[in-house]
C-alpha cells in the first residue's frame, strides 16, 4: 500500500544559509499514527512545516528531495490547498487568533468546510473532547491560559475534518490528565474516523505508547526508526528518551551526570 | 577562505566585545575611514560634494538617530522631520541671537532643543503603542511645521519665514569649500556613529531592544519602560536634531519649514527600514540608497532610455523614478525583510562558508 | 570648444504644482528652441539647455543647481520656486551666477546694491500686492474709500504666500482698511475652514496668494461657500488657465493680476508656432502655447537671452558669456517699446529697463478676469508705487545685510 | 450661533469625507494586519483612471451621454483597481507573509511610490475633472432664524450620504459573514490562518479589491470636489487622525472618528486659529486624536491591544 | 511532618528533610478576577527560604496568574503579598525585580531580536550603575562594569550549556533552548526567589533532567528559593519540597508531594485516575 505521506530525502535551509534538515525521509501509512521524536532543535518542527508548506513565512525553503501526498507532489501547493486535501497542521506554540473568541477560533478552523451541519457537529465534537473550551467559548483567545490555548489550537484543527493531522507537540503545557485525553482523542479519531497522524513529540513515553511507528531525529537527520514497540524496548531509547535505562526510572533529583547525551551521528 | 575568523581566538571578553571582532573587519574599517577622509575628497568631483556626499553624510546621521528610536526601541516615528526642524531652528536661534556663538556648540544646542522636543512628543509613547503611536507622531511633524511658519520669533522675525546663515567657521577655519564641509559632516557622523554604537551595545541599548521586543517581560526584569522609551526619544532626537542643523546650515544654507516636511520624515523612515532596523550599518546603507538612487536615476535614466530608442522628458523621468524607487523598495523587502544590513550580513556569512554552500 | 550658451532649466512637471509648472517650463524651452531655429542662436552662439526636475522641493532644487552650475557656458538660473530661491541666494553669490526670479522670490532683492546676483525683474510680491490695492482703490473711487473696508488675504502658508504681508500691512496702516490673514496649509487641497472663516468675516475683498492646486481649490470653495468670485483678486501666479479651467463657470468673474498677455496673437508666439511647433519640436501640446504661464516662461527666457545679447554688445559679439557678464547684461537691460516690437513682444509686456541699483525695473500689470472661457483684460496698466516700495526695500535690504554682516556693493562696482 | 452651527455642519461633512478615505485604511488593516499607506495613492490612482476614462470614452465611442461616460469609466476604473489588487498580492504580499508590521508598512510605502508614478505616467499629471453632476452652488437654510442663514453644501451632503451607506454595508459584511471572521483571523496571525486552510492569496485580493473600490468612490467624490491631480494623494494624511481616533480595526469607528475630527478641526481653526495665527487645523486634528488615544490607546472603537505574558 | 509556622524557626522540608529557612514570601488571601472570570479566589500560601515550592493544577487554574500577581503584571483585587517582612497590596514590577524576585514565562517572553548573550545580559541591567554618557563613551568604569557583568553572564551560559548559541538571535533557536535562555535571563538577576512557569514544557526526558539539574543546582549552590509551576508530575514529585494545588482559582491542596499526591481532591481535579 502506498503511504499517504512520503517524505523523500528533503533538505531545508532557513534564510538561505542555515541548513537545518540534511536529507530526511519518512513514510506515513494511511490510517497510522507515526511519531517523530528527538531533542530540542533536532528539526521536528521544520519537518512538519516542510510537509504543510508553512516554511515560507519563516523564510525557509526545501532545497532537495520531494514530498508526496498520496503519490502527488505537494511542494508547490499552498497550505490552503493542503488543507483542502485534508492535511492540517497544529502549530507548535499554539498560535490562536488572539482577538477572536475561542468559539470564533474554532469556527474559523472550519473555513474549508461548507456544510453547516458538519460544522455544527464538529463544534459539538470539539466541545465534547475539551469541555474546558466550552466554558471559555466567549473569551478572547489571548486571555485564556496556556493550556486552554493549546486545546483551542488542537480543536481548531479538528474542525477542518482532516484526514492527516500534523501535530506539533500537542502535549506541551497540558495538565497530565488532559495529556492523556489528547492522546486518547488521537487514538479515537484514528480508529473511528481513520484519521492519520504524524506526531512530533517530546513526551516519548506517551508518543510511543500510542504510535504505531516512530522516527528519531538528531540534528536534522533521522537516526533511527522502527515500530514503536521495538523502539520502546531499544536500550538507547530507553536510556535517553524514556529515562528507564539500566533498570528502573531515575529520580530527577538523582541525575547529576554531565554531558551524557548520546549522539548516533556526529 | 579568506574571510574567516579561524584562528582568531578571543582571549578576553573585552576582545570579544569589540565593535568588530573579526580582524578583517577591523582592517576594512580602518581602510574605509582612510578612504573617506583622504581619498574621497581627492577623487570627488565638485558636483559630488554638495549633491551627493554631503547630503548622504547628513542623512546617514539622521538615519542613525531614527534607527535608535525605531530600530532599537521599536517606537515607529513619522515625526523625524520635525526633530530635524527643531534642531535646525534651535541651532539657528542660538547662532544668530547669541553673539559670537561658535558653530559646533550651536549645532549641539540645536540637538538639545530637538531632544527636549523629542521627549515632549515621546511622552504619549508611554501609553500609546505601535501604529497608533506612529500616526500620533505625525502630530509633532505638523505642529513643528506650523510653529516655524507661524511663530515669528523662531525665524528671527524674518517676514517671509525663510532664514539663512553664512560665514560658517570652525575654530577659526572658514567652512567655505566643499571639502571642508564634507570633512565637517563626516567627522560629526563618525563620532556620533561611534557613540551610538557604544550606546546600543551597552546596558541602555539592551533596555531599548528589550522594550521593543516585549515590553511586559522587560518590565518584569526591572526595566522601566518610561526611562527606556524617553531616553530613546532623547538620544534619537538629539542626533536627528544635529542632523537637521547640519542639513540647514551646511547643505541648504537658507531654508524654510518645508525643508523638513513630512516627506522628509518618510524618507528617514525609509532609510532605516531599507537599511535594516536595529543596525547602525543599516542606516548608512539606507541613506546611501535613498540619497543616491534618485540622483542616479535622474542622471542616467535619460541615457538608458535613449539607448532603447525612447526619449523621456523630465516628468517621465520623475515618474519612472517613482516607479523604480517604489519597485526597488518592495523588491528589497521581499528579498530581505530585515534590510540591506541583513543582506550584507548574510553575504558575509556566505563568504565565511565559502567555498561550501552551507 | 563649440560656442554654446547653456541654460539650466529648473522646473517641475510633477507634484502638486505640476499643472502650473509645466506650461511655464514649456514656454522657456520653446523660446530657446525658437531662437536657435529662427536666429541661429545669439550672434552665432547656439543656445543649449537641460531641464532638471525639482518637484518644487528645496533640496531637490539645490541638487539640480549643483548639478547644472558647472556646465560649460552656464548662463543663469530661474528656479521657478520661492523656496528654492531662498536657498540659492547665498549659493549664487558664492558661485557668481545670476538668479532671475521674475515676479517671485525675495521682494527685497530688488535692491541691486545689496543683492548683486538676484534679479526679480518685472515684479515682486510687494509690487504685485500694491497693484491689486491700487486697482481696488480705483474701482472704489479713491484710496480714502478703502477706509474701514475688510480685505482678506488667503495665502499659501509658505514664504511665497507670506511675502506680500509687509506691504499689505503698510498699506492698511496708510489707508485704514482691515487686513485679515487666512493661511492655507500647503499644498492647499483642504481649505474648508479657510473659507468658513471668509464666510464668517465677510470681507469686502479676498486676495488670493496661491499656487498650483491651491488656486482651483480656493475657487471651488469660494463657490461652495457662495463668496462672490468678482470680489476675489489673485496674484499673477493665481491667474492662469490651469487655475480656472476645471472650475469652469464657477470661476466666472474671478480677477487676477496679469503681467503679460495670453493668446497666440503676439508675433513671438507665432514665431514659436512656426519655427518650433510646426516642425514637430514643440515641448508641450500646441494649444497650450500662448497661455498665461507659457507666455510668462517665454518672457523669462527672453530676458535671459536679451541679457546675453546685451552682455555680448559689451564683452564681445559672438562669444559665450560668463555668468558674471550675463549679470552685467541683466543689470543693463534696456528694452524699449521699439525693441520689444522688433522682437515680437509688442503688447505682451511693457518696456523694461534695469540698472545696477534697481534689479527689478518697473512693475506694470493689468487685471484680467475669467469669463468662463478665457481671460479678458478688465483694467488698464497699473504701475507699482515705488514711493512706498523703495523705502521698504531699502530697509529690508539693510536688515538683511546687517544680519549677514555683509557690505553693500561699492558704487565703483556699479561702474564696471 | 448661526455661524457656529454652520461650522459644525461643515465639520461634520468634511468628517464624512475623511471617513471615506479612512475606511480604506481600516478595511485593509482589519483584514490583513497591514497598515496600508498606499491608500492615498490608490485614491489618486482610481480617481485619475475614472477622470481620464470619462474623458476618453466619449471620444472613443462617440457616445456623448455623460451618464454613460461616467458609469463606464467607473466600471473600468473598478476593474483596474481589481487588477491592481491582484498584482499587489501576487508581487508583494504573498512574499511577505508572516513579516512584521513595520516591514509591511514599508512595502505599502513602496507601493505608494509605484502607484503615484504609474498613475501619472498612464493618465497624465495635469488637473482633470470628474463631473458626476454634483451640485456646486450652496443653499442657505434657516435664513429666517439666523442672520445670514446656515450655508449647506449640497455636494457635501450627497457625499456624506454615500460614505455613510458604504460604511454601513462594510460593517455588516465584517460582522455577519464567515469571510469577515476569516479576515480578522488573517490579521491576527498569517501563519496560523494558513495552517487551517484560509487561502491568503484569495483573501488578500478580495480585501485589496474592496479597498480599491472604496478608494475609487473616495477618489470620485474628492475628485469631483477638488479636481483630480497629484495632491489628491495627500488627503490620506488628513484621514490618518480619523483612523487612529476611531480605532484601526473598527469600521464604524472610521465614521465616528471622522465626525469628531471634522468638527474638531473646523471649530478649532475657526475659533482658536485666529488667536494664534491660523493654519492649526491639521496639527490640531492629530493632537485631538492623540488626546483620545491617551484615554483609550486603541482608539475609540478599536480592539484592545493585547499584551500578555 | 508538621511545618513550623513561626517564621523565626527554621523548618525542614517535608519531602526530603532538607533544612528550610524562614518564610520569605507570604501570599495572603489573593483574589483576582477579569470581568466575570475569577482567576484566583482567596489564595494563601507561603514560601520558605531555600525551598522548592511547586504550584500545580489543571489548565486555567490560575497558576500563571498567581505568578503575575507576585511580580506586578496583574494587580489582584484583594489580598496582600509579604516579601521579607514587607507587605504589599500592589506589587510594582520594577520594585519586585529590585527586591530580588525573577521569573520565567510560560509562553516564552524572550527578546526575539536580540542574541542569547544580550538577552541574558538584560537580566543584569538592574545592576548597571554607569550613566548614559559613560556608556556612550564606554570608558573606564563603564567598560569595566560591562566586563564584570559579561563574566557573570558567561558563567550562566556555561552553566546552561548554551555556549554555542551565544551570538544567535533567540528567535532562531528551537523552543527548548529558548526556554533555557529564559531561565538564564532570570538567573542573571541573581534573584533570591525564582519563579518558574512551566520551564520544562516541550522538552524530552533528557532535557528535563538537565533542567532539573539546573534548578536544583541553583537552589543548592546559591540558596535560591524556587517557585515552580510544572505539569510533569514526575518532576514535581521528585524535586519539590512542598506543593500547592490550585483548581478553578481555588486552593485545593497544600503540603508535601506525597501528601498531595494522595489527596483525593487533587486526584480528581488534576492527576486523573491513572497516576
Ligand atoms: N526561522 C528560523 N530561522 C533560522 N533558523 C531556524 C528557524 N527555525 C528553526 N531554526 C533552526 O532549525 C533547527 C531545527 O529547529 P526545529 O524548530 O525544527 O526543532 P525542533 O525539533 O522542533 O525542536 P523543539 O523540540 O525545541 O521544538 C534549530 O537549530 C533552529 O535553530
Ligand atoms: N488578562 C486576562 N484576562 C482575562 N482572563 C484571564 C487573563 N489572564 C488569565 N485569565 C484567565 O484566568 C484563568 C487562569 O489563567 P492562568 O493563565 O493563570 O492559568 P494557568 O493555571 O497558568 O493554566 P495553564 O496551566 O493552562 O497555563 C484562565 O481561565 C484565563 O483564561
Ligand atoms: Mg519544535
Ligand atoms: Mg499558565
What is the gyration radius of chain D calculated from CA atoms? 20 Å
SS element count, helices of chain D: 11
Q: What's the total count of β strands of chain D?
A: 2
Secondary-structure element series of chain C: EHEHHEEHEHHEHEHEHEHHHEHEEEEHH
Strand content of chain C: 5-15%
pLDDT averaged over residues of chain C: 91
Oligomeric nature of the chains:
heteropentamer
> Strand count, sense and closure of the main sheet of chain C?
8 strands, mixed
Query: Which consecutive residue ranges of chain C, at least 5 long each, have pLDDT under 50?
Result: none
What structural category arises from helix and sheet content of chain D? Answer: mainly alpha
Give the percentage of residues in beta strands of chain D.
under 5%
The coarse overall form of chain D would be globular
Describe this structure in words.
- The complex is a heteropentamer of chains A (266), B (358), C (416), D (309) and E (275).
- Chain A is an alpha/beta fold.
- Chain A has a domain at 27-44 and 77-86 and 162-265: P-loop containing nucleotide triphosphate hydrolases (Rossmann fold), CATH 3.40.50.
- Chain A has helices spanning 44-52, 79-84, 102-109, 116-129, 131-135, 146-158, 176-193, 204-210, 228-233, 235-242, and strands spanning 5-14, 18-28, 33-38, 60-69, 72-73, 87-90, 164-168, 196-201, 213-218, 221-227.
- In chain A, the strands form two sheets. Chain A has a six-stranded mixed sheet with strand order 6-7-8-3-9-10, sandwiched between helices.
- In chain A, helix 7 (176-193) links the parallel strand 7 (164-168) and strand 8 (196-201).
- Chain A is globular, with a radius of gyration of 19 Å.
- Helix content of chain B is 72%, strand content 2%.
- Chain B is built from 14 helices and four strands.
- In chain B, the strands form two sheets. Chain B has a two-stranded antiparallel ribbon with strand order 1-4. A two-stranded antiparallel ribbon of chain B has the order 2-3.
- The longest helix of chain B is centred in the middle third of the chain and has 28 residues, at 225-252.
- The model of chain B has no long low-confidence stretch (mean pLDDT 87).
- Chain D has a two-stranded antiparallel ribbon with strand order 1-2.
- Chain D contains eleven helices and two strands, in the order H-H-H-H-E-E-H-H-H-H-H-H-H.
- The relative contact order of chain D is 0.19.
- Chain D is globular, with a radius of gyration of 20 Å.
- Chain D is mainly alpha-helical and 309 residues long.
- Chain E has 275 residues and is of the alpha/beta class.
- Mean pLDDT of chain E is 86; it is low at 1-9.
- Chain E folds into two domains: 1-100 and 192-275, P-loop containing nucleotide triphosphate hydrolases (Rossmann fold, 3-Layer(aba) Sandwich); 109-190, no CATH class.
- In chain E, strand 9 (242-247) and strand 10 (250-255) form a beta hairpin.
- Chain E has a six-stranded mixed sheet with strand order 6-7-8-3-9-10, with helices on both faces.
- The radius of gyration of chain E is 19 Å and the shape is globular.
- At the B-D interface, helix 6, helix 9, helix 11 and helix 13 of B face helix 4, helix 9 and helix 11 of D.
- One adenosine-5'-triphosphate sits between chains E (34, 37, 39, 57, 59-65, 106) and A (136, 139, 143-148, 173).
- Chain E: It comes from Ramlibacter cellulosilyticus.
- Chain E: One of its GO terms (molecular function) is ATP hydrolysis activity.
- Chain E: This is ABC transporter ATP-binding protein.
- Chain E: Pfam families: ABC_tran, BCA_ABC_TP_C.
- Chain E: InterPro entries: AAA+_ATPase (IPR003593), ABC_AA/LPS_Transport (IPR051120), ABC_transporter-like_ATP-bd (IPR003439), BCA_ABC_TP_C (IPR032823), P-loop_NTPase (IPR027417).
Amino acid at each position: 500500500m502506498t503511504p499517504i505521506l512520503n517524505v523523500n530525502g528533503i533538505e531545508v535551509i532557513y534564510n538561505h544559509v542555515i541548513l537545518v534538515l540534511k536529507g530526511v525521509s519518512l513514510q506515513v501509512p494511511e490510517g497510522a499514527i507515526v511519531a517523530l521524536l528527538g531533542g530540542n532543535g533536532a528539526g521536528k518542527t521544520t519537518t512538519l512545516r516542510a510537509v504543510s508548506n508553512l516554511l515560507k513565512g519563516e523564510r525557509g525553503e526545501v532545497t532537495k528531495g520531494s514530498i508526496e501526498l498520496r503519490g502527488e507532489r505537494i511542494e508547490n501547493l499552498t497550505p490552503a490547498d493542503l488543507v483542502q486535501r485534508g492535511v492540517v497542521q497544529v502549530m507548535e506554540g499554539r498560535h490562536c487568533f488572539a482577538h477572536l473568541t475561542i468559539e470564533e477560533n474554532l469556527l474559523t478552523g472550519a473555513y474549508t468546510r461548507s456544510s453547516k451541519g458538519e460544522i455544527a457537529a464538529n463544534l459539538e465534537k470539539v466541545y465534547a473532547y475539551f469541555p474546558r473550551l466550552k466554558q471559555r467559548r466567549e473569551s478572547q483567545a489571548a486571555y485564556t491560559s496556556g493550556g486552554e490555548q493549546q486545546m483551542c489550537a488542537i480543536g481548531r484543527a479538528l474542525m477542518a475534518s482532516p484526514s492527516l493531522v500534523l501535530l506539533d507537540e500537542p502535549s506541551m503545557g497540558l495538565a497530565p490528565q488532559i495529556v492523556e485525553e489528547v492522546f486518547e482523542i488521537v487514538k479515537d479519531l484514528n480508529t473511528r474516523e481513520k484519521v492519520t497522524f504524524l506526531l512530533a513529540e517530546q513526551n516519548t513515553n506517551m508518543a510511543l505508547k500510542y504510535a504505531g511507528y516512530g522516527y528519531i531525529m538528531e540534528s536534522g537527520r533521522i537516526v533511527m526508526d522502527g515500530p514503536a514497540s521495538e523502539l520502546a524496548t531499544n536500550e538507547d531509547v530507553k536510556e535517553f528518551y524514556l529515562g528507564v535505562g539500566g533498570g528502573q526510572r531515575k529520580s530527577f533529583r538523582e541525575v547529576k551526570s554531565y554531558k551524557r547525551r548520546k549522539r548516533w551521528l556526529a | 577562505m579568506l574571510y574567516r575568523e579561524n584562528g582568531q581566538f578571543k582571549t578576553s571578553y573585552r576582545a570579544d566585545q569589540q565593535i568588530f571582532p573579526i580582524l578583517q573587519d577591523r582592517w576594512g574599517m580602518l581602510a574605509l575611514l582612510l578612504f573617506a577622509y583622504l581619498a574621497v575628497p581627492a577623487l570627488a568631483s565638485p558636483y559630488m560634494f554638495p549633491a551627493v556626499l554631503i547630503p548622504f553624510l547628513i542623512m546617514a546621521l539622521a538615519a542613525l538617530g531614527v534607527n535608535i528610536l525605531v530600530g532599537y526601541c521599536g517606537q515607529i516615528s513619522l515625526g523625524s522631520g520635525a526633530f530635524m526642524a527643531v534642531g535646525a531652528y534651535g541651532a539657528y536661534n542660538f547662532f544668530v541671537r547669541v553673539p559670537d556663538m561658535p558653530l559646533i556648540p550651536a549645532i549641539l544646542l540645536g540637538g538639545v532643543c530637538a531632544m527636549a522636543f523629542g521627549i515632549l512628543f515621546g511622552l504619549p509613547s508611554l501609553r500609546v503603542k505601535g501604529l497608533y503611536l506612529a500616526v500620533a507622531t505625525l502630530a509633532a511633524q505638523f505642529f513643528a511645521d506650523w510653529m516655524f511658519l507661524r511663530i515669528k520669533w523662531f525665524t528671527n522675525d524674518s517676514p517671509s519665514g525663510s532664514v539663512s546663515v553664512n560665514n560658517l567657521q570652525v575654530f577659526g577655519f572658514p567652512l567655505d569649500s566643499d571639502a571642508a564641509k564634507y570633512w565637517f559632516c563626516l567627522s560629526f557622523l563618525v563620532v556620533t556613529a561611534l557613540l551610538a554604537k557604544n550606546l546600543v551595545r551597552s546596558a541602555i541599548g539592551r533596555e531599548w531592544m528589550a522594550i521593543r521586543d516585549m515590553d511586559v517581560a522587560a518590565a518584569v526584569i526591572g526595566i522601566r519602560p518610561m526611562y527606556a522609551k524617553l531616553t530613546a526619544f532623547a538620544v534619537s532626537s538629539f542626533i536627528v536634531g544635529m542632523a537637521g542643523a547640519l542639513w540647514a546650515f551646511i547643505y541648504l544654507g537658507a531654508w524654510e519649514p518645508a525643508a523638513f516636511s513630512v516627506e522628509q520624515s518618510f524618507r528617514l523612515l525609509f532609510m532605516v527600514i531599507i537599511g535594516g532596523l536595529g543596525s547602525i550599518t543599516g542606516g548608512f546603507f539606507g541613506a546611501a540608497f535613498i540619497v543616491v538612487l534618485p540622483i542616479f536615476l535622474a542622471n542616467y535614466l535619460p541615457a538608458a532610455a535613449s539607448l532603447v530608442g525612447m526619449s523621456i522628458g523630465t516628468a517621465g523621468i520623475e515618474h519612472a523614478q517613482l516607479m523604480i524607487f517604489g519597485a526597488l523598495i518592495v523588491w528589497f523587502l521581499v528579498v530581505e525583510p530585515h534590510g540591506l544590513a541583513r543582506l550584507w550580513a548574510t553575504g558575509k556569512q556566505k563568504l565565511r562558508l565559502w567555498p561550501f554552500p552551507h | 570648444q563649440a560656442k554654446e550658451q547653456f541654460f539650466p532649466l529648473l522646473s517641475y512637471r510633477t507634484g502638486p504644482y505640476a499643472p502650473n509648472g509645466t506650461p511655464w517650463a514649456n514656454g522657456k524651452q520653446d523660446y530657446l528652441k525658437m531662437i536657435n531655429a529662427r536666429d541661429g542662436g545669439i550672434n552665432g552662439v547656439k543656445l543649449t539647455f537641460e531641464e532638471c526636475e525639482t518637484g518644487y522641493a528645496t533640496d531637490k532644487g539645490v541638487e539640480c543647481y549643483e548639478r547644472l552650475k558647472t556646465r560649460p557656458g552656464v548662463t543663469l538660473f530661474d528656479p521657478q520656486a520661492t523656496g528654492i530661491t531662498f536657498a540659492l541666494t547665498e549659493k549664487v553669490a558664492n558661485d557668481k551666477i545670476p538668479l532671475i526670479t521674475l515676479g517671485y522670490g525675495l521682494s527685497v532683492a530688488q535692491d541691486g546694491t545689496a543683492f548683486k546676483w538676484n534679479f526679480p525683474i518685472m515684479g515682486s510680491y510687494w509690487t504685485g500686492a500694491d497693484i491689486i490695492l491700487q486697482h481696488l482703490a480705483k474701482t472704489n473711487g479713491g484710496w480714502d474709500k478703502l477706509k474701514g473696508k475688510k480685505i482678506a488675504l488667503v495665502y499659501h502658508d509658505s514664504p511665497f504666500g507670506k511675502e506680500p504681508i509687509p506691504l499689505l500691512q503698510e498699506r492698511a496702516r496708510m489707508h485704514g482698511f482691515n487686513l485679515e490673514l487666512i493661511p492655507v496649509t500647503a499644498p492647499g487641497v483642504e481649505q474648508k475652514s479657510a473659507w468658513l472663516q471668509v464666510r464668517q468675516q465677510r470681507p469686502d475683498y479676498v486676495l488670493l496668494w496661491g499656487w498650483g492646486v491651491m488656486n482651483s481649490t480656493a475657487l471651488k470653495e469660494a463657490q461652495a461657500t457662495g463668496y462672490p468670485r468678482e470680489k476675489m483678486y489673485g496674484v499673477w501666479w493665481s491667474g492662469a488657465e490651469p487655475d480656472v479651467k476645471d472650475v469652469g463657470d464657477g470661476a466666472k468673474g474671478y480677477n487676477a493680476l496679469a503681467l503679460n498677455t495670453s493668446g497666440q496673437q503676439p508675433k513671438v508666439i507665432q514665431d514659436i508656432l512656426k519655427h518650433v511647433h510646426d516642425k514637430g519640436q514643440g515641448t508641450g501640446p500646441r494649444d497650450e502655447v500662448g497661455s498665461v504661464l507659457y507666455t510668462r516662461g517665454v518672457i523669462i527666457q527672453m530676458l535671459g537671452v536679451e541679457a546675453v545679447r546685451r552682455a555680448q554688445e559689451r564683452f564681445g559679439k559672438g562669444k559665450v558669456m560668463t555668468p558674471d557678464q550675463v549679470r552685467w547684461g541683466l543689470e543693463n537691460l534696456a528694452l524699449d517699446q521699439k525693441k520689444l516690437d522688433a522682437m515680437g513682444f509688442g503688447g505682451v509686456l511693457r518696456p523694461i529697463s534695469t540698472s545696477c541699483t534697481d534689479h527689478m525695473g518697473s512693475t506694470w500689470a493689468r487685471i484680467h478676469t475669467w469669463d468662463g472661457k478665457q481671460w479678458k483684460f478688465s483694467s488698464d496698466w497699473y504701475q507699482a508705487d515705488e514711493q512706498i516700495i523703495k523705502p521698504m526695500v531699502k530697509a529690508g535690504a539693510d536688515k538683511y545685510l546687517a544680519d549677514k554682516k555683509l557690505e553693500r556693493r561699492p558704487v565703483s562696482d556699479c561702474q564696471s | 450661533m448661526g455661524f457656529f452651527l454652520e461650522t459644525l455642519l461643515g465639520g461634520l461633512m468634511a468628517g464624512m469625507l475623511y471617513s471615506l478615505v479612512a475606511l480604506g485604511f481600516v478595511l485593509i488593516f482589519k483584514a490583513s494586519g497591514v497598515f496600508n499607506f498606499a491608500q492615498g495613492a490608490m485614491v489618486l490612482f482610481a480617481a485619475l483612471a475614472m477622470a481620464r476614462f470619462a474623458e476618453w470614452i466619449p471620444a472613443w465611442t462617440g457616445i456623448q451621454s455623460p451618464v454613460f461616460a461616467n458609469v463606464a469609466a467607473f466600471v473600468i476604473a473598478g476593474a483596474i483597481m481589481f487588477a491592481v489588487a491582484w498584482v499587489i498580492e501576487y508581487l508583494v504580499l504573498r512574499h511577505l507573509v508572516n513579516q512584521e508590521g513595520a516591514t509591511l508598512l514599508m512595502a505599502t510605502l513602496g507601493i505608494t511610490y509605484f502607484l503615484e508614478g504609474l498613475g501619472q505616467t498612464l493618465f497624465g499629471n495635469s488637473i482633470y475633472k470628474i463631473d458626476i453632476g454634483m451640485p456646486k452652488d450652496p443653499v442657505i437654510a434657516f435664513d429666517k432664524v439666523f442672520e445670514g442663514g446656515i450655508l449647506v453644501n449640497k455636494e457635501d451632503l450627497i457625499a456624506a450620504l454615500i460614505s455613510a451607506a458604504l460604511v454601513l454595508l462594510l460593517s455588516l459584511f465584517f460582522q455577519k459573514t464567515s469571510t469577515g471572521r476569516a479576515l480578522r483571523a488573517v490579521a491576527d496571525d498569517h501563519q496560523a490562518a494558513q495552517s487551517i486552510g484560509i487561502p491568503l492569496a484569495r483573501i488578500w485580493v478580495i480585501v485589496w479589491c474592496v479597498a480599491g473600490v472604496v478608494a475609487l468612490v473616495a477618489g470620485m467624490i474628492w475628485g469631483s470636489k477638488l479636481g483630480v491631480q497629484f495632491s489628491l494623494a495627500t488627503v490620506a494624511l488628513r484621514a490618518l487622525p480619523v483612523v487612529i481616533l476611531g480605532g484601526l480595526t473598527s469600521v464604524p469607528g472610521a465614521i465616528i472618528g471622522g465626525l469628531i475630527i471634522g468638527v474638531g478641526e473646523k471649530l478649532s481653526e475657526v475659533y482658536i486659529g485666529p488667536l494664534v495665527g491660523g493654519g492649526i487645523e491639521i496639527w490640531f486634528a492629530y493632537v485631538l486624536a492623540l488626546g483620545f488615544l491617551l484615554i483609550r490607546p486603541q482608539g475609540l472603537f478599536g480592539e484592545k491591544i493585547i499584551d500578555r505574558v | 511532618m508538621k511545618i513550623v509556622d513561626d517564621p523565626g524557626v527554621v523548618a525542614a522540608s517535608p519531602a526530603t528533610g532538607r533544612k528550610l529557612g524562614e518564610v520569605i514570601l507570604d501570599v495572603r488571601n489573593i483574589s483576582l478576577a477579569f470581568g466575570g472570570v475569577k482567576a484566583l479566589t482567596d489564595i494563601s500560601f507561603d514560601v520558605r527560604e531555600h525551598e522548592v515550592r511547586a504550584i500545580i493544577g489543571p489548565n486555567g487554574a490560575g497558576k500563571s496568574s498567581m505568578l503575575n500577581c507576585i511580580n506586578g503584571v496583574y494587580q489582584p483585587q484583594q489580598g496582600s503579598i509579604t516579601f521579607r517582612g514587607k507587605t504589599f497590596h500592589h506589587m510594582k514590577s520594577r520594585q519586585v525585580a529590585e527586591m530580588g524576585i525573577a521569573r520565567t514565562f510560560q509562553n516564552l517572553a524572550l527578546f526575539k531580536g536580540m542574541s542569547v548573550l544580550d538577552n541574558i545580559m538584560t537580566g543584569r541591567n538592574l545592576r548597571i550603575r554607569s550613566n548614559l554618557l559613560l556608556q556612550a563613551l564606554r570608558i573606564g568604569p563603564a567598560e569595566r562594569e560591562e566586563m564584570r557583568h559579561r563574566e557573570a553572564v558567561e558563567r550562566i551560559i556555561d552553566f546552561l550549556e548554551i555556549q554555542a548559541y551565544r551570538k544567535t538571535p533567540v528567535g532562531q533557536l528551537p523552543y527548548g533552548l529558548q526556554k533555557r535562555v529564559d531561565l538564564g535571563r532570570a538567573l542573571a538577576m541573581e534573584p533570591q526567589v525564582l519563579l518558574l512557569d512551566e520551564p520544562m514544557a516541550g522538552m524530552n526526558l533528557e532535557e528535563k533532567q538537565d533542567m532539573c539539574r539546573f534548578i536544583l543546582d541553583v537552589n543548592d549552590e546559591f540558596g535560591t528559593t524556587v517557585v515552580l509551576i510544572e505539569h510533569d508530575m514526575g518532576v514535581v514529585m521528585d524535586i519539590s519540597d512542598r506543593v500547592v494545588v490550585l483548581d478553578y482559582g481555588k486552593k485545593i491542596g497544600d503540603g508535601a508531594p506525597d501528601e498531595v499526591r494522595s489527596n483525593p481532591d487533587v486526584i480528581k481535579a488534576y492527576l486523573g485516575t491513572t497516576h
